[in-house]
């Protein structure tokens, strides 16, 4: 391939999506070490830049804004002015192929969404959703480079482990809750899990971000033991959280962005999964904690429906189940 100096990557989604997108960008950087990579993303996900030096610049595109089409037009004009040599998009629809074409990038790569993407893209890549999401995103760069980056990598130094620790991050994004996508157990169950793990001799630490305020407050009112550390509010950004996750021997969380940070830090991780598909969202070295339900639609969220059902049998996970899985695995 001819010389590539300027790369545009487009991925509109949450912070977890951006972390899962990093392996593709890392492989591109290995192929074109002198290139400058610009990531176009939603404002809510800009914190990903705190975790990596692979991304040189950001273009914020507020597609959740009521004037999203104006936002997209502004983005197209910005991209055209910069004159990108190569662009990739993680969007799985033909509209993103059109957007990429309009940016004027010389080479364009995205998923095959039919005739339009095949005509407008340099290469339309087959979209395989039945795999780990980082691998799905990485498929976008296989026509460009032979480099393979399997897991997210972030520029946070390896941390010295704190003995016998279990770090718990119970929350999910407020946006997912507002949209009716319930992906984790209730605060009462989290509190009971803290009690059981602390009573078993574990050094339990509780952490969360601004979106988790209500959940954390309920946990603190419900938990019975005093033998745990409340670190809520101690982490000011994603980098602080990554360092704390790196120090823990065990990390327990929901299906949320901190899960992907933990994968990048290489911390032994247990994640609560209900309506979403763990096989698509975690690598094999992460343990998914799931209910023993018989729902025929599970996993349903995103593939079968855009909101969770009222029954939520898939999230009837007890604190006893959580503590036993962690303690037995750790034995």
Structural class: alpha/beta
Main sheet record: 6 strands, parallel
In DSSP terms (H or I, runs of 4 or more residues), the helix count works out at: 12
Helix residue percentage:
25-40%
The helix-strand sequence is EHEEHEHEHEHEHHEHEHEHEHEH
Amino- and carboxy-terminal Cα gap: 51 Å
Could you name the CATH topology of the largest domain? Answer: Rossmann fold
Account of the 3D structure:
This protein is of the alpha/beta class. The chain folds into two domains: 6-141, Rossmann fold (3-Layer(aba) Sandwich); 165-330, Glycogen Phosphorylase B (Rossmann fold, 3-Layer(aba) Sandwich). 35% of the residues lie in helices and 15% in strands. The chain contains twelve helices and twelve strands. It has helices at residues 15-31, 68-82, 94-102, 115-120, 133-138, 174-178, 187-199, 213-222, 238-247, 257-265, 278-281, 319-330; strands at residues 6-10, 36-41, 57-60, 86-89, 107-111, 123-125, 165-169, 203-206, 228-230, 250-253, 268-272, 287-289. Helix 7 packs parallel to helix 12 and helix 9 (238-247) packs across helix 10 (257-265). The radius of gyration is 21 Å and the shape is globular. The chain starts with 5 loop residues before the first strand and ends with a helix. The mean pLDDT is 95.
């Amino acid at each position: 391939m001819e010389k590539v100096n300027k790369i545009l990557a487009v991925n509109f989604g949450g912070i977890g999506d951006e972390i899962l997108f990093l392996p593709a960008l890392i492989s591109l950087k290995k192929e074109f070490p002198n290139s400058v990579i610009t990531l176009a993303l939603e404002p809510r996900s800009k914190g990903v830049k705190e975790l990596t030096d692979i991304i040189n610049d950001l273009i914020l595109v507020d597609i959740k804004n009521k004037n999203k089409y104006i936002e997209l037009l502004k983005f197209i004009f910005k991209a055209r002015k910069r004159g990108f040599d190569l662009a990739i998009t993680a969007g799985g629809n033909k509209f993103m192929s059109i957007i990429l074409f309009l940016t004027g990038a010389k080479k364009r790569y995205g998923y095959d969404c039919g005739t339009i993407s095949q005509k407008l893209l340099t290469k339309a890549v087959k979209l395989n959703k039945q795999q780990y999401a980082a691998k799905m995103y990485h498929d976008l760069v296989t026509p460009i480079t032979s480099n393979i980056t399997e897991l997210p990598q972030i520029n946070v130094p390896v941390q010295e482990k704190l003995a016998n620790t279990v770090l718990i991050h119970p929350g999910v994004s407020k946006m997912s809750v507002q949209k009716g996508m319930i992906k984790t157990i209730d605060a009462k169950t989290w509190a009971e899990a803290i009690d059981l793990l602390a009573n078993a001799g574990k050094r339990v630490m509780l952490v969360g971000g601004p979106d988790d305020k209500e959940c954390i407050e309920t946990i603190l009112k419900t938990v019975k033991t005093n033998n745990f550390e409340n670190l809520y509010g101690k982490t000011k950004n994603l980098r602080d959280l990554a360092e704390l996750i790196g120090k823990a021997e065990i990390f327990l969380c929901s299906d949320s962005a901190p899960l992907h940070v933990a994968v990048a830090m290489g911390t032994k991780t247990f994640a609560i999964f209900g309506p979403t598909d763990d096989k698509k969202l975690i690598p094999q070295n992460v343990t998914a904690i799931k209910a023993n339900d018989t729902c025929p639609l599970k996993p349903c969220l995103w593939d079968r429906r855009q909101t969770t059902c009222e029954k939520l049998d898939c999230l009837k996970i007890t604190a006893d189940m959580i503590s036993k899985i962690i303690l037995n695995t750790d034995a």
